[in-house]
Design a protein that fits this description.
The complex is a heterodimer of chains A (about 400) and B (about 1050). Chain A is of the alpha/beta class. Chain A has helices spanning about 35-40, 95-100, 115-125, 140-145, 155, 165-175, 215-220, 235-240, 260-270, 280-290, 375-390; strands at about 1-5, 10-20, 25-30, 50-55, 55-60, 75-80, 80-85, 105-110, 125-130, 165, 205-210, 225-230, 245-250, 275-280, 295-310, 315-325, 335-340, 350-355, 360. Chain A is about 25% helix and about 30% strand. Chain B is of the alpha/beta class. Chain B has 36 helices and 39 strands. Classes of the chains: A alpha/beta (about 400), B alpha/beta (about 1050). Chains A and B meet through helix 3 and strand 15 of A and strand 11, helix 9 and helix 16 of B.
Amino acid sequence: MRAFLILEDGTVFEGISIGAQKEAISEIVFNTSMAGYVEVLTDPSYAGQSVCMTYPLIGNYGICNQDMESKKPWVKGLIVRELSRKPSNFRCDRTIQEFLLEYDIPGIASIDTRALTKILRKKGTMNGMITCDENFNIHEILPKLKQYEMGNVVEEVSCKEDYEIIGAKMFEEEEKNLKTGLGREKKQSPPVLMKEGKGVGKRVALLDLGAKENIILSLAKRGCFITVYPAWTKAEEILRKRPDGIMLSNGPGDPKSCISIIKEIKKLYDSDIPVFAICLGHQLMNLATGGDTYKMKYGHRGGNHPVKDLKTGRVYISSQNHGYVVDMDKLDKNVAEPAFINVNDGTNEGLRYIGKPVFTVQFHPEACPGPWDSGVLFDYFIEMMEEARHA
Amino acid sequence: MPKNPNIKKVLVIGSGPIVIGQAAEFDYAGTQACRSLKEEGIEVVLVNSNPATIMTDKEIADSVYIEPLTRKVLELLIKKERPDSILPTLGGQAALNLAMELEESGFLKSQGVHLIGTTSQTIKKAEDRLEFKKTMEKIGEPCAPSLVVETIEDGIDFSNKIGFPVVLRPAYTLGGSGGGIAFNQYELEEILANGLRLSRVGQVLVEKSIAGWKEIEYEVMRDSLGNCITVCNMENIDPVGVHTGDSIVVAPSQTLGDKEYQMLRSASINIINELKITGGCNVQFALHPNSFEYCVIEVNPRVSRSSALASKATGYPIAKVAAKIALGYRLDEIKNAITGKTYASFEPALDYCVVKLPRLPFDKFITAKRTLTTQMKATGEVMSICTNFEGALMKALRSLEQHTDSLLSYGFSHLEERELLERLKKVDDQRIFVIAEALRKGMNPHTIYKETQIDPWFIDKLAILVEMEERLKEKPLTIEKLKEAKRLEFPDRVISKISHVSEKRIKKMRYENNIVAAFKMVDTCAGEFEAATPYYYSCFGSENEAEETKPEKKVLVLGSGPIRIGQGIEFDYCSVHSTWAFRREGYETIIVNNNPETVSTDFDIAHKLYFEPLTPEDIENIVHFEKPDGAVVQFGGQTAIKLTESLMKMGVPILGTSAENVDAAEDRERFDQILEECGIPRPAGGTVYTSEEAVEIGENLGYPVLVRPSYVLGGQGMQIAFSPKEVEEFIHNINQIAQEHPILVDKYLMGKEIEVDAVCDGTDILIPGIMEHIERAGVHSGDSISVYPVQTISQKAKETIIDYTKKLAKSLHVVGLLNIQFILSKEEVYVIEVNPRSSRTIPYISKVTGIPIVDLAAQVMIGKKIKDLGYEPGLAEEKDYIAVKMPIFSFEKIRGAEISLGPEMKSTGECLGIAKTFHEALYKAFLGAGMDLPKHKQVIITVKDGDKQEAIEIGKRFEALGYKIYATRSTSKALKEAGIQARKVNKITQESPNVMDLILGHKIDLVIDTPTQGRDKSRDGFIIRRTAIETGIHCLTSLDTARALLTSLEHGNKEKLSLINIASL
């Protein structure tokens, strides 16, 4: 069946319908990761967006449930050049086609994804619509596209009730479930639980703004005891439990629309409990402490972004997924100092808060998809908690 | 960390002659790195024995030495030039080994010279099997159970312990030389013995076979601060067991999820960090197809064939960045030259699929085993880019120029399912065609997977291509179907063949329905950033994004495709130089080529690079868009020449000699007519299509006769026939491959071969030099030792040669390059071949004479005159230097290949000896070829009856040098009768000790074996020659070569070599 992708600027791509045959209006973004489409589909930060994968061959290894970054896919639509008809991987649980249908997600294939990418690069991220309606009326559609707003997507993706994860226990389960076959003796992915170390028993409060599974796993495998809270949880409730550390997760949408959450985060900041924040969490912490954010032209989405640690000069290749960024010009030097910058465009990639055990990054040390290079930052967070305990 | 201020003068070691496993990729890497160093104001001294390289141009380095790559020469060179640093990671294994020798001997320390880019500890950790294993164990990176053995007994013990099959990998060898898989003790003993001999340190790794696992490679970069990136990963379609150089490779990996991808990526970074490599490194993994289990196969702590491929596949210039890192720069301080915006510290994102196919030499060595193993056999490779895998594979197939343009190209249709199943077990270059046929016959893909261990994803892709074939068979050919066939990159020719619709109609249908090729960019970033110097590939069903340019003048330069025997790196040298020349003349230059190993496909050589197959249809797509003012076909070997007619039909003017005149030189009758008009004699002969006609001509001429196809390079299919039976056999061989052109049968003349390269502007002619071959006519010019200037030719003959050259240039209206081969027989000069194009001697003659031949040719092609370019027409004044070009062979890599020399070219590369005297030049040439004699002072001589007289002279001279001479029965008799102390040895078939035992005793310097008439029919001789080669003993099959070697041994002196800086000539 034919499908169309109509962009806010009037551009129309014709392709073939994949997944659910329904209409979807959303923001259109592109991701340059060559592998990891399962993680992208299920990353809550993509709520309200349709993703164009720049790598042309998608679905080659099917859907591995183990790779899902949340319970379900969050993208509004998927845009690809070609979907593989035959997935091949020992972990493959189903095809990507089945997956899209199961979760009622529409998509379009057989379009020139590079041409689309170049439009987004030149004109910036814009809204668009995927439809199977051949008789669409562009004059009616374009105003609708311009009006579209993502709304309060954080509330949509956040967990509804708080829950607890006991790292060690979870990992025993995980180990049993891993279909690693021969690999079990040697090397496993994800790596097995650290049974020793400073992380064991640390109590972390995780504010779920749309958290990726691997943020939880990264803490859990270090032995942490994690309580996951819905995004709207009051700071008092979290602080009452006296956690060793607070983790602010990634999440979708415009940070400035999270007005009430920002207020709560300010209280968390004031508490002097160590805070580690990723992506949306990083932006919200900055807004909570008087900073500002702005929308980037077309954002950073991919697994190849170099970020530089300004303290050591070391460069890490990072996984990224953000359309907004902290405004360095409006940063109060007395509140926070840049910890990381993006080597490509010099934008902010991390902040270290002055006089506070607060450390935040724009990129994704939890990877999935993307390089594991900066996973060490979770250890750094554990160090922060350890220091605070002794302080 | 900016540049290290202490580095001012760097010695770069090249990789030497082109051999299998070490080819043009090191010229590409070396050239790019030298330019990168010079950019930084570093004084570069370059040494490489290979004169056909671009890196040995004076434009590339400040001082250039084309000298043998031996420790002694390097020591002399370092003392002479006094560099402060050596960059050893660009010249392949050859350079790395040499640097290690210099370091380990303490020489570098004594001279205060540092290795940059890597340290000897790093090299040792990565290359020494034991050290490597220890290192991997230390950081928890798994390796397959293995043991380094130094004796066969230890190998047997260990193999019995871990169980067969086992893989054998000799330490410090290239292209897996001497390696293999042994399934039983017998095979183990055979391969192990060979491997122990080939290893520089006498070590072979015996390892549990992980055959059938996925083979995945990563290219990693690291700077001195420890910043790491991976440039790309690649997946071998052929599972572990086939050398990656012989595998079909796809980039990026297709069947790995992000978890597998990142697991191996992290492992690569772990490894490069532990090895502390500063620069580039290649890591090869085996990944279990059904688990996360993996093991590290190998690490190359240097640029490699794979890194060249990765560079071209992604646009990331690994060698350039590696050179900057060696100077002290950090990755985030080096600009990404493709985007001009981002930095080298980022990982390329591909938005296309890349397929590499090996170019295997089985069309040359028809007796050789086609089986692919862990020992590399490919001489070259092609790379293609498309937005889908099927299309990339189809494009790569037709880029090979081996008469393959689809999966139907080999005739397996006669095989039944049962036979196909058997055939699938055979791992060779035709396997994907067999798989396609099995799919056509309806075999279950899972069965195919079980037999081949090729991932089902790839098998399904082949199935998609086979399904397309089937759909094309069904009439009618609809627009939708055509669109899909083109998306999968079926060429019009193939669509026409299958659908029985004429190519003309297909083309019309395509243009009427806008089914045309679009060009997409390779930009390192999947479109995320604007690109400054991208390059292009074509695909169907997309928007064209190539920049439309309308410069004043635009020229299309056609490259030479994959490196193969007969068409090597020399033609890339010519393509690149012509491009530079046109650039200087104000032209916008466009290069089309598909070889990822070459300099010509570097992103900044031409204004625009199209990474495309070199077929008429693919070229037409480019022409259609670019509308060049002219095309140049003279420099890209036969690949480019073959496109002449098609280009003219497209309306593209051919710059230089017209197509008609090119044809006149190849067309027998027209050429004969020209010769007659000029009064130039040639060996008698005729043109035929069938073997009957050929036999008739043979009878008339009298045997022996020379049989050869027309329009080929490197004497492919050329043979000397001594009987009608042989004529029939050879004609049959030639006709096995598609042959649209007639076959030539000539009288074979015994005499001296002379070769001339010339530039002609239509009026005047400049002859930079005349070359003389050491081997008599009958040995292909590419396999002969060639000497400049001529040493033994009379002034009169020389004048005749100049006269003939002038006449031929005029009659053929040559504008540009001309190469003529003559035979001097009984003081009479005959013309045997005229090629109005570049030849493989151009690079070396350019370097020795200092005349920029290609540059001049390009200039006369656009109307300039030789006289105005500052050159006097006629024969250029001979230089004070003598240059001897020595052919280099890769026989040891190809099991079962006949090594005896004949009219069909077999050498893969060349080295040069250059000196003030002929004797020193000759000595250097032999030294460069690895003939570092004497060692044991023992020689075996076994010659055919006709050569006995000559053998006596040779025997005497060896005896005078103190050699002990062994000879088989009749040869020893002849030698003894002449008073030479020859020891008789038994033939192979006789009881021990026989000639075989002698060879295997490792105490022989040299075997001289002239094959009995024609192509060798004697199994004995063949076995002797093969055994000698595989035992590492030099084997000469021409007495002329033997005499030259004697001359060099009689006069050579290792200790007193003079080194010549080519850049100062």
